[in-house]
Amino acid sequence: MRRIFCCAVIVLAAFVANSAQARSATLILLNGKVWTENPKQPESEAVAVDGNLIMSVGPSASIRKLAGPDCKIIDLGGRRVVPGFNDSHVHLLAGGSSLISVQLGAVNSAEEFRRRIGDYANSLPKGAWIRNGNWDHQRWNPVALPTHQLIDAVTPSNPVFVWRLDGHMALANAVAMKLAGLDRNTKDIPGGEIVRDKDGSPTGILKDEATSLVERIMPPLLPRELDAALTAAMHEAASHGVTSVQNMWDSPADQHSAMKFREFQKFARAGILTVRIYNASPLRDWKALVTAGVEAGFGGPILRMGNLKSFADGALGSETAWMDTPFSDRPGYSGLASSDLMDSAGMYASIQGADQAGLQISIHAIGDRAIHTVLDLFERAEKQNGTADRRFRIEHVQHLRPSDAARFAPLGVIASMQPYHAIDDGRWAEKELGPERIQSSYAWRLLLDHGAVLAFGSDWPVAPLDPLIGIYAAATRRTLDGKNPEGWIPKQRITVAEAVHAYTVGSAFAEHQEKVKGSIEPGKLADLVVLTDDIFRIAITDLDKARVYMTVFNGSVIYQQPAQP
User: Fold this and answer.
1) C-alpha to C-alpha distance for 23 and 438, rounded to whole angstroms
2) Residues 465, 54: Cα–Cα separation, whole Å
3) CA-to-CA distance for 393 and 452, rounded, in angstroms?
4) pLDDT > 70 fraction of the chain, expressed in percent and rounded
5) Cis peptide before 461 (omega within 30 of 0)
6) pTM of the predicted protein model
7) Phi-psi group of 200: left, alpha or beta (phi > 0 → left; psi -120 to 50 → alpha; rest → beta)
């Protein structure tokens, strides 16, 4: 009996020793200022990571003792640590592709626009498409939409289809229009607009669903181009501390959502995907997902699906947001409802059926009329389908009826918003909407005060993939032109802490993942960001100077700020 007892003690001791060894840390961050987003332990000094999970959070002295034999220990020197940023609304491959295409975002004149496109065309073989661009005619003086005549002479052998930064308007050159069969006899299509000159001929500008006239004949990106785009996107995300993204269907005319998801799968299978992706498919595909047995959140910790996206309207900058009353500078015109929303019965049937099957639904809505209509559709579906943890989302929520702010929380509708748009659009939005309607534009304070969940993102490549500039925008509302030093509609500002919460816990909640990420606490995924500055202590006007010092993804350091010369 004594021998059996001794053996049992030896086995138990070995088990305890092995368990302790298994729970030793593989990465430790010491001497930091850790903003946990855990209300039970709001701030701390150090974090221990075991593999891809957070093991412990506490004082540096106790955390140091958890180091395993091969543990990497990093002294943060007092730097601020926050949870990995989760961008609730991106177009990941479009963003990556924009980094390796013609760069028009900083162009300040028609002449510079023409020159950059011409120079880029000279670097390409004949017949190669020129895409992306992300131009903004609101930067030009005078403000005027470009036309195909502006660039035809410098692109005689290359079709061009370059997008305005909002993704709701694009310019085609003569070559592209000829390939698309687009001329003065082409009829407008529902949900879109062909901009025409005084003779009725297309100027080359296509808005919203009219962009499909060219998109349908454009070749998809080649496999090597997709690889390059995703690689560039991952590097961009890592450098800005973005460890999770919620990837959105690009446009109503986008026919390549399956191809893009296969690209994500390829990188995930190879073990080289360094950003977690929650992918949204077109709402129109909901029956295919239901048939396959997919529900919201299907997948693993790196790549998931089950979100569905549709469009209710366009964008303010393209004057295609669907408004209650006409634009101030365009009497009699109130924007465009999407073709999906024009068939409201069909759109509701898709929302109701997809929701009943356990899929999540996100609807793009920017204008006040569009937002109100989508809230009505969501409310109707909730009443018909009954209580559930559905987490309906409205993407953008830019120009809101004040009375609608109170509807989000009772309906459980998440406001998925992008703060940078406010400091960008705020330069010119009043001339479109007038002084009264802008009071509830980008109304983060109003929504929070009514109990709504905010999930923050960028809409990259429409805006920079940089949560820190988004936090700056949310806290200051200082427009990019420097003309609003106290903030554009300052009553809608929120605190830095509220903005960080929206970029972490709020975004995790928006994808049904708040139990596994969004905060720094034991058992959650080891995604963390180390910052160069303490964004909770510096002046909010200096937030735009803060940078990412280090990014930890899945327990490994994937980005380190280059050493200063």
Assistant:
1) 54
2) 26
3) 11
4) 96
5) yes
6) 0.88
7) left
